[in-house]
Amino acid sequence: MTNTASPAIHGYRDLNRLMALMTGDEKHGPAATSTLDSLWVLYDRVLRVSPETVDLPERDRFLLSKGHGPMAYYAVLAAKGFLDEGLLPGFGSYTSILGHHPDRTLVPGAEIGSGSLGHGLPLAVGTALGLRAQGLTDPRVWVLIGDAELDEGSNHEAIAYAGPAGLERLHTLVIDNSSASLGWPGGIASRFEAAGWSAVTVDGRDHEALYAAFSTPHPGRPHAVVARVEPKS
């Protein structure tokens, strides 16, 4: 199934309404709402990708590693014209392209199929390496992970590799809702900094703080933004 409609473009105030259209099994609702503001700021002010440029080699890449709570992601994609909002009420149904985990072969704009914790950051490292190998130095790679994903060892291998490799086009957004089983002395940002990354921690509901963090210069180093939101209930 393909999306052939001409979607309307919406603003931030429309997101709650768009999310409310997804009335099926909401599976991992808190995981979705924790990402809402960060996703909006990225797509509204940072990412250089649109429905018209989604297949161009020069586009920015956004990878949703935290794919087990995609409702906010679908709402933002609809708001920005990647999806027709008429698809949202079918969320999670057998015939819908909008599954409980995004499918990159079905969802316009989705770069990866995701939902299994710990895969997105390694895939983002590979994407940044692939772009570098092709001589594509302009596209940026963004990956959104949850703090609980940092319980997975694959992420720490990716963090340890990316810093010394100087993957400055790589950006990791960590949504921290205090759901991790483990912890890090000095906080999550310190884990990235110890591996040679640029890192900053901000209020994950403050749009201006998020934008400033997303646009922080970090020459020669990958960049991590830890967005703190209310603890998972």
- Are there runs of 5+ residues with pLDDT below 50, and where? 1-7
Strand content: 5-15%
Summed over residues and divided by their number, the pLDDT gives a mean of 91
Q: What is the share of helical residues? A: 25-40%
Number of strands: 5
Q: How are the strands of the biggest sheet laid out side by side? A: 1-2-3-5-4
Instruction: Identify the overall geometry.
Output: globular
Please, how many helices?
8
Main sheet characteristics: 5 strands, parallel
Instruction: Quote the distance from N terminus to C terminus.
Output: 36 Å
Indicate the structural class. alpha/beta
Rounded to the nearest angstrom, the radius of gyration is 17 Å
Run of helices and strands: HHHEHHEHEHEHE
Task: Explain the overall architecture.
By secondary structure, this protein is of the alpha/beta class. It is built from 8 helices and 5 strands. Mean pLDDT is 91; it is low at 1-7.
Keywords:
alpha/beta, 5 strands, single chain, 233 residues, globular, five-stranded parallel sheet, 8 helices, disordered N terminus
Question: How would you summarize this macromolecular structure in one to three sentences?
Answer:
This protein is 31% helix and 12% strand.
List the helices and strands and how they pair.
Layout: H1 15-20, H2 29-33, H3 36-46, E1 61-64, H4 71-79, H5 120-133, E2 141-146, H6 153-165, E3 170-176, H7 188-194, E4 198-203, H8 207-214, E5 223-228
